[in-house]
Every structure is written in C-alpha cells, then in structure tokens.
Amino acid sequence: MATVDLKDVRKVYPGGVEAVKGVSIAIPDKALCVLVGPSGCGKSTLLRMIAGLETISAGSCAIDGKVVNAIGPTERDIAMVFQNYALYPHMKVYDNMAYGLRNRGTPKDEIDRRVRSTAKTLELEHLLERRPRELSGGQRQRVAMGRAIVRNPKVFLFDEPLSNLDAKLRGQMRVEIKNLQRSLGVTSVYVTHDQLEAMTLADVLVVMNAGLVEQSGAPLDIYEKPASTFVASFIGAPPMNLLPLRSGQFEGAVTLPAVPGNAATLGFRPEDCEVRVEAGGIAADGALRLLARVEGVEPVGAESFLYCQAAGGRIVVRVPGRTELQAGDQLPVFARREKLHFFGSDGKRV
Amino acid sequence: MAEPSTRPPASGHDKLMIGQSAAGIWLAHAVLILGILIVAFPIYYTFVASTHSLQTILRPPLPLLPGDRFVENYWEALFGGVGRIGGVPVGTLLLNTTIVALGIAVGKIIISILSAYAIVFFRFRGRMFFFWLIFITLMLPVEVRILPTYKVMVDLGLIDTYTGLIVPLIASATATLLFRQFFLTIPGELVEAARVDGAGPWRFFKDILLPLSRTNIAALFVILFIYGWTQYLWPLLVTNRNDMNTIVIALKKMISFADADTEWHLVMVTSMLAIVPPILVVVLMQRWFVRGLVETEK
Ligand SMILES: Nc1ncnc2c1ncn2[C@@H]1O[C@H](COP(=O)(O)OP(=O)(O)O)[C@@H](O)[C@H]1O
Ligand SMILES: [Mg+2]
C-alpha cells in the first residue's frame, strides 16, 4: 500500500544530542523493515520521526512517495504500537479500538463492523467490554495491535512491542505479528534491540549503531556477510568469535589459510566450528586450525556451547547435542575457509 | 477459564486481620464511639437548641431532648426573615452562599485545569516564566492582597455582586500545581497514542485528560466548595447589602453582645442549615473519589 523512503535523515535534540546522524533507508511496499541496534542508538528516534511525533532536523521522509516532513502524525496515516501499549485506561477495549476511527469521522456502523472484525482476527471478541486494567499483559498487547490494525493505515510502526512480555508469549506473538503483517500486506517498521526478533521478523533488516546505519539488507545476507565487526558481534547468538591478527599472522593458529593483506581481525561463528582430533580432509582445503582449552560448558539440550581460551583470545564453540568435554580439556578447533570473515583495522569487512 | 489459583484456600478465619482479638475489637470500637460522641455532641446540642423557643433557650439548663418548635423555627428562619440581618430570610443566604461556593469551586477547577494543561502539554515561549508566576502567587493569598483587590472591585462597580464575591477568589495556584503534578504522571506514550489516533489538543483534553482527572476533580471540588462556603473576610468586605450576605457573615451579624437581643433559636437553626450543604457535597462526591482510589486507572 505504501513505501517509506528516508533520505539522509538527521535528528538533533534541543539539548544538542545528535541522536540520528544521517540515515537513508528505502522500504518497499508491503515489506516489514526491522531496525535493530543496541539501546540508545537512535532507533526509537528514527521511528518517531517517521510517525511525525518528532520533528526531522535534516533530510526527508516520504510515505508513498510524498514527503511528509511538515505534516503531523494524524495526516500521515500511520498507526503505532507502543512499548507500554499506551491504551486509554478509562476506555473499554471497544472504545480504545474505535477512538481513532471516531476522530476521523468514520460512520458508526462502519466503525462497529471494523472493530468487530479486527477483534475476531485477534481473538479479542470476549474482551471488548473490558477495560485495560482488567487484561493480562498479552491481551493488552493484542488490543494495542488491534487499535493499529482497525485503522487500516498506510504504515504500521512498532516500538519494541514485545519487550514487556515473557519469553514464551514473545515467541508466539512474534509469529503472529509476522503472519498478520503478511496477510494484511501493510508496510511496517519494527524497532527492537533483540537480534533474534530482528532476524525472524525482517524482510529488510537495518542494523544501527550510534545514530548510523551499519548495514542493511536481507537478514540472512547480513548474517552471512556482516559488513563490520559491530554487525558480526551483534547479529547471531552467541556472537561471532573475533580474534586479532598481527600483520596477517595469528599466533594461536596451528594453520591459517591465506589472509587478505589488510585484515586486522579474523572472525568465525561458533556454529561454523568443528571439533575433531583428526584434521581429515578439512586441513587440506585451507581451514583455520587452532588449539583451545575449554573453560566452561553450557549444555542447552539440542546443542552445547564450549567457552574456550585460545592463544589469540576467548572463543565460543558450538557442538551439536550433548558433549563429554569438560573444563580443562584441550582440543583442536577447525573452521572452513569459506566460513572465515576478515575485517580491516577500521572494523569494516575486507 | 480455569486458572490455577495462587491464593491460600479460604477458611472461616480469612477475614481476620493481623493481631485482631476480641478485646482489640472492643477497644477499637470504644475509641471510635468516643470519638464520634466528642464530634457529634455539639452538633446534636445545636440541633436540640434549634427546636426550642427563645424563652426555653434563655432559661438554662437547656433540655437534652429536642423540643416541639422544629417546624415553626425552621419555617421562620428560612422564609420569614431574621430581624438582626435586615429581615433577610435564611433561604436567601443559603442561595447566595451556594452560588458563591459553587462559583469558586467550579471557577477554580476550570481555570487551574486549563492552566495546568497549557503548562504541561504545550511548549510555548515563556512557559517556565508563567509557571513561576503562578507558583509565586501561592505567597499572595486573598488576605495579603485584600486592599488592592477591594479597590479594583469598587472601581469596577462589583460591590454587592456575585461576580465581586466570586472572581477574586478564583485564581488558584494550589489547584494548578495539583493538576500539574497529576498531568506529569500521565505517560508520554499515551499522549502520543492520542496524537496518532487523530486527537487534536481539544479532543485530547476532553476525551482523555478530563476523564482521567475525574478523581482529582471530585476531591478538589469538595475541598474548594467548603473553602468557598466558609469564606469570611472577603464577603464581609465586598457586601454591604444584607440580601447579598453569605450565611457565615449573617451568622456573625445575628449574634449581638446583649444576650437578650439575640434570637438564639434562629441562630441555632441557621447554624444547622449552614452545615447541611457541605455535608451533602461530601456525601454525594465521596462515591466518586472512593471509587477512584479503589480502582487505579493507570
Ligand atoms: N527527548 C529527547 N531529548 C534529548 N535526547 C534524547 C531524547 N530522546 C532520546 N534522546 C537521546 O537520543 C539517543 C537515542 O535515543 P533513542 O532513539 O530512544 O534510542 P533507542 O530507541 O535506540 O534506544 C539517546 O542518546 C537518547 O539519550
Ligand atoms: Mg527505544
């Protein structure tokens, strides 16, 4: 229904804090774009500028091809789901959902029809006569979603909508949001600091750091080819192992494949490691091989994480299933050539 | 929905509070009853006096039981006119005082809720200046600025008018500050949600802020109504005509230094009538703020 185009958007708060330092993102129609980054990196600020709740200091924001810098949130035809839901405490669920439509002068029977059909989609029908304080956290979350959906806006904006739910509910809602967004086909921007949420929800993933975009693209592309050490350590859990290289050399490596000349950091993901006594065929094709000493074991069930000390620094190694290894064991760790990442001294991928 | 309950199973003793024993209950009741007696007895005795003739009152001791002059005394005071206050019936005084107290309470609430709304939710030039200006007027209650205010009322020709009685008492820093504190607790997200939902400043005020302030308004209304009802100094200054007096002023005027000149039975009736409206307001409004206290809205 709508595209969202940000061009070199900046935000300087009255106090002088530059929260967003020039961000350009093009979100295609019907896509779910996730902004992810550590706390304080400017995600909310950016989202609120798209919503029209915060003025844009420089650059432009266009919704559906039309620059909206100068118009307020009402005219932008967006709907927002807030972190603390922001339901009107004195209104029944029905009125909470109907309020936006009433303010826009929608006819009464049309409001009723839309509220009821949205309530049906979200399984809120039996709650319509209740007030927000009579609902559980998960139900409030659904009402907040309902309030956004019922308006049928051009763009949905979500600011960490699941962060107040417990882990199990968060997982369910994540799936549900994704399905709803797909079926409604409404362009959405979703802010989160949780990389798992970001990976699973995003059509377009934007990784932010200190007011700037570090990398944007399809989630798996970012996972496979992180553009910087920041992205490498932010996306993926546990994060990528990063070991310093000294003039293309690496002391702890028993064998090290050819290294790009200007590389300063070597990275490989815990899940891309193999632990074997015998090098077998791997060593031949130029894999990394290093020796590590196990310092701790974290069995999760389907997999176990080994926290190890290698000569170059600490690393995490994932092994499938349960493991007999224990703290103090020495083991050789391999990582295939094509699973290695190299970063320059500025942190950028080389 | 059958949800597992985390409460302990209800037993016959689940109403007992900590440390409650039979002796404790008796003691508590005794103290409460004593308190009620101390507060209620003077009021009861005033009522008793209001139902006797002047002769009975002037010949002590006053009986402890109500007399037979209830209808006559109340009828005379309410509609007949009391000699010492220029023959004005107490009914007129009640009306005057009700208008003044309502005017002050409603006026103060409207003015202060609107100024608090402006100060908390709008960014305009001189916002903090105006806030401090309001804040500073806390140090200037009516008594301090009474002479200049009186002069202004005289110049405007507002002596012996309801406007003159009400308007100078309306400006209220206290109520403004109370509303401001309450508004500051309203989460920013709620304000933003309303903006996204297409509520302009007026709609936000009417649909969201006002309903959320209901409890505060009710409590404030009670306090301010009683404040207005019991005003003494200002009504004394600004009214000359007997039929513009408030009931508190009239009560004072009814009492002469010489006992024989004072129609004590009518004074007692007027006192009884003077406390009825505040009591009514408290009893009627109580529903609102008690409910507000029980169910937290945020
Ligand atoms: N209203 C404000 N005034 C001044 N600085 C702000 C304001 N809101 C946020 N900031 C600052 O802007 C930066 C980005 O904040 P925010 O966008 O909320 O981050 P995030 O949502 O990514 O955690 C932070 O450094 C924060 O302190
Ligand atoms: Mg945020």
Automatic annotation (TrEMBL), chain A:
Its main location: membrane. It is found in: Cell inner membrane. SUPFAM superfamilies: MOP-like, P-loop containing nucleoside triphosphate hydrolases. Keywords: ATP-binding, Cell inner membrane, Cell membrane, Membrane, Nucleotide-binding, Sugar transport, Translocase, Transport. The keyword S-adenosyl-L-methionine does not apply. Residues 4-235 form the ABC transporter domain. Pfam families: ABC_tran, TOBE_2. The keyword RNA-binding does not apply. SMART domains: AAA. One of its GO terms (molecular function) is ATP binding. GO terms for biological process: carbohydrate transport; glycerol-3-phosphate transmembrane transport; glycerophosphodiester transmembrane transport. It is a peripheral membrane protein. One of its GO terms (cellular component) is ATP-binding cassette (ABC) transporter complex, substrate-binding subunit-containing. Belongs to the ABC transporter superfamily. This is Carbohydrate ABC transporter ATP-binding protein (CUT1 family). It comes from Mycoplana dimorpha.
UniProtKB/TrEMBL annotation, chain B:
The keyword RNA-binding does not apply. Keywords: Cell inner membrane, Cell membrane, Membrane, Transmembrane, Transmembrane helix, Transport. It is found in: Cell inner membrane; Cell membrane. GO terms for biological process: transmembrane transport. The keyword Membrane applies. It is a multi-pass membrane protein. The chain crosses the membrane at residues 21-45, 99-122, 129-147, 159-179, 216-234, 264-285. Belongs to the binding-protein-dependent transport system permease family. The complex is composed of two ATP-binding proteins (UgpC), two transmembrane proteins (UgpA and UgpE) and a solute-binding protein (UgpB). Part of the ABC transporter complex UgpBAEC involved in sn-glycerol-3-phosphate (G3P) import. Probably responsible for the translocation of the substrate across the membrane. This is sn-glycerol-3-phosphate transport system permease protein UgpE. It comes from Mycoplana dimorpha.
